[in-house]
Structure to design on (699 residues):
């Protein structure tokens, strides 16, 4: 296989545009990609024409505006290129500039949180020129996909891309102000760069399809643990099995064709769990590409008779899945601002940027936490497998020590390990960052030249986490630049500011074990927020602090924030409701009837044994145990059934979401408990669906 040849073969890349567009049109598009703005209608027509030709050569018959509504996944509506036949009945394939640039899907069924009344159903999609068009090859045939932003008719963002693009502009502008202060005059743009490591599970499709819970909610709602879990650590980085290997091979090919730089693959900690990671790229494209990764994993899994589970916690008792969002900020001249430099000047800049990020994360820990919240992630965060729900920053020993020295004495002149000290000037050391990351328990870890935000859920879009990160860092850059641009003695002022920020916000630094109980207490003592669940995180979006931040940088309006909060409450309630109904259904139609059948067999045995004058105690004890659990199940089932009915009839919104969290979730757990105990008691051939052992050890 020639990877160089297939890479991006289905992408209308900048190179393809250069080949296929007249010079003037190409230059115009290049300038819009670099500097923003709009294409002229004439150029849009030329680009659309070239794109259509290219797509048709690749076999495409349809195009779609590909967008990311607030459902967290992507949406598309296909239109073919065909037009009205001419008088001779001939068909000419058409694609105009205005169709490329703007679309009007009837989008009344997408969540808008009240932003767009259904009578004003029209939303529109607008081409995001910074993300290249591509061809998706699925069962519907090759389709030209145009990445777009999705807005209401009055311009409010109804998607995940629009605010992300706004946040990228904000951080670029503010970061440029910072580097100007340090004498950088050539960079004109700073781009947040993101590499998302994606975890997932693979199970056998036929077995998965025998479980309603996997079909409807993507996770198991019942299931006793298998005799073996992940305690042997024999799956992590283990040899990849043939069936999984051939799946990964095909996933890579599909992703490479789409220009996704799929780079790393390995088995993860839990049985049947795996990971895929691409090479990092501009945040905007990384968000799009992560969506393509998730879609491709699911699609290719189907072709291999497998089912890919992206849910954060498909199975109790073994690790769930997350997504590590690796984030850095890079100038258009190729300098990573999170890379400590070699000169004292660069080091000071690095320390200032670091101090600003600590300030941002401390000030807006609630927002960052919110950005990683989704229904599935409630099962992971704060468990012993994923970062705690408390936001803290891991810096590594060496940097933490530099911070400590600066805070205590105003001078950091020693390094605790390695490297000779060349302070050149002032009070700050030159250092090489100790990039070894010894801490996997931190939600937000500095790993040498990037931050790794490890809280994000595996199924979630990385749009929100990156929007929030960009926004909060833009704000602290802005506040620092406001002060430093006015300073008479810059060296003094920057030193004081670094010290001030580090002193004020050092409470957010934590290098210890994030899984420990002590940390929960210590964090409380430091006054760090501990937001345990998704519903409790939502209000972070609409605090005064949050509204001020987002409105200041034009990322969200107050109305947009309020609508997002509404949507999240609704999503929570709906998701839990589906899970509850699925549990009720499985209990009524599968588990209880099967257990009765088993009890019936036991009862027959008891009678026969007695008739035969044999000892019936084993069967009759078992029958007793089974019956006890069965009646517990019946009681829990009737409670859940009643509570679900009440909750689902409530008015949508915050109050309803909290009822689901506080009442329905515990009622579901109460139903699961006796059912899982029954699974351990009831004969294998009586149990109505595949067990954990069947699912995670037999792929
Ligand atoms: P890990 O130790 O977490 O496996 P890796 O070095 O393998 O770390 O990188 C994980 C992810 O981080 C990859 O997607 C990679 O492309 C991305 N990454 C590496 N450097 C950067 C950077 N400077 N900015 C953003 N992401 C990066
Ligand atoms: Mg990682």
């Amino acid at each position: 296989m020639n990877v160089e040849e297939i890479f991006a073969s289905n992408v209308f890349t900048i190179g393809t545009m250069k080949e296929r567009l007249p010079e003037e049109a190409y230059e115009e598009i290049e300038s819009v990609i670099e500097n923003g703005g709009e294409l002229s209608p004439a150029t849009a027509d030329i680009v659309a024409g070239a794109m259509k030709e290219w797509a048709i050569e690749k076999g495409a018959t349809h195009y779609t505006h590909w967008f990311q509504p607030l459902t967290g996944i992507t949406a598309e509506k296909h239109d073919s290129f065909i037009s009205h036949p001419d008088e001779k009945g001939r068909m000419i394939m058409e694609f105009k500039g205005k169709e490329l640039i703007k679309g009007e899907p009837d989008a009344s069924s997408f969540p808008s949180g009240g932003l767009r009344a259904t009578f004003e159903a029209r939303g529109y999609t607008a081409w995001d020129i910074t993300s290249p068009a591509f061809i998706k090859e699925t069962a519907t045939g090759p389709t030209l996909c145009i990445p777009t932003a999705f807005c209401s008719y009055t311009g409010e963002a109804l998607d995940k891309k629009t605010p992300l693009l706004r946040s990228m502009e904000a951080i670029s502008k503010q970061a440029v102000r910072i580097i100007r202060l340090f004498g950088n005059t050539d960079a004109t743009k700073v781009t947040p760069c993101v590499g998302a490591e994606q975890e997932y599970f693979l199970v056998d499709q036929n077995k998965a399809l025998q479980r309603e819970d996997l079909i409807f909610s993507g996770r198991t709602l019942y299931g006793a643990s298998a005799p073996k879990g992940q305690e042997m650590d024999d799956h992590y980085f283990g040899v990849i099995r043939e069936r999984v290997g051939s799946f990964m091979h095909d996933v890579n090919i599909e992703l490479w064709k789409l220009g996704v730089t799929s780079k790393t693959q390995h088995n993860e900690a839990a049985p049947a769990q795996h990971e895929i990671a691409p090479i990092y790229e501009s945040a905007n494209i990384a968000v799009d590409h992560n969506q393509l990764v998730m879609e491709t994993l699911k699609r290719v899994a189907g072709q291999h008779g497998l089912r890919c589970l992206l849910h954060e916690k498909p199975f109790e008792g073994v690790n769930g899945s997350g997504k590590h969002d690796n984030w850095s900020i890079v100038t258009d001249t190729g300098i990573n601002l999170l890379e400590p430099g070699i000169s004292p000047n660069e080091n000071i800049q690095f320390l200032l940027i670091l101090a600003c990020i600590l300030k941002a994360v401390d000030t807006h820990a609630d927002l960052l936490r919110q950005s990683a919240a989704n229904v599935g992630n409630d099962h992971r965060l704060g468990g012993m497998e994923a970062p705690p729900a408390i936001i803290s920053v891991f810096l590594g020993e060496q940097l933490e020590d530099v911070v400590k020295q600066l805070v205590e004495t105003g001078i950091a002149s020693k390094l605790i390990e390695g490297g000779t000290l060349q302070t050149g000037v002032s009070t700050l050391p030159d250092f090489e960052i100790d990039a070894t990351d010894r801490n996997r328990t931190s939600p937000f870890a500095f790993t040498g030249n990037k931050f790794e935000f490890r809280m994000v859920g595996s199924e979630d879009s990385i749009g929100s986490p990156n929007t929030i990160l960009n926004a909060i860092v833009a704000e602290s850059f802005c506040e620092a630049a406001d002060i430093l641009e006015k300073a008479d003695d810059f060296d003094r002022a920057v030193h004081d500011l670094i010290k001030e920020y580090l002193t004020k916000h050092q409470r957010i630094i934590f290098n210890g074990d994030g899984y420990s109980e002590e940390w929960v207490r210590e964090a409380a003592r430091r006054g760090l927020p501990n937001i345990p669940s998704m519903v409790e995180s939502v209000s972070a979006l609409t605090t005064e602090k949050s509204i001020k931040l987002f409105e200041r940088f034009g990322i969200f309006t107050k109305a947009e924030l309020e609508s997002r909060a509404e949507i999240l409450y609704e999503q929570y309630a709906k998701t839990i409701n589906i899970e509850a109904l699925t549990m009720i259904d499985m209990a009524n139609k599968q588990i209880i009837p099967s257990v009765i059948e088993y009890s019936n067999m036991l009862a027959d045995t008891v009678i026969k044994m007695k008739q035969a004058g044999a000892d019936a105690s084993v069967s009759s004890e078992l029958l007793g145990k089974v019956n006890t659990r069965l009646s517990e199940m019946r009681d829990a089932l009737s409670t859940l059934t009643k509570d679900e009915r009440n909750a689902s009839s409530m008015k949508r919104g915050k109050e309803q979401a909290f009822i689901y969290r506080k009442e329905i979730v515990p009622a579901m757990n109460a139903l699961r408990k006796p059912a899982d105990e029954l699974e351990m008691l009831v004969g294998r051939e009586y149990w109505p669906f595949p067990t954990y052992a069947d699912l995670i050890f037999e792929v």
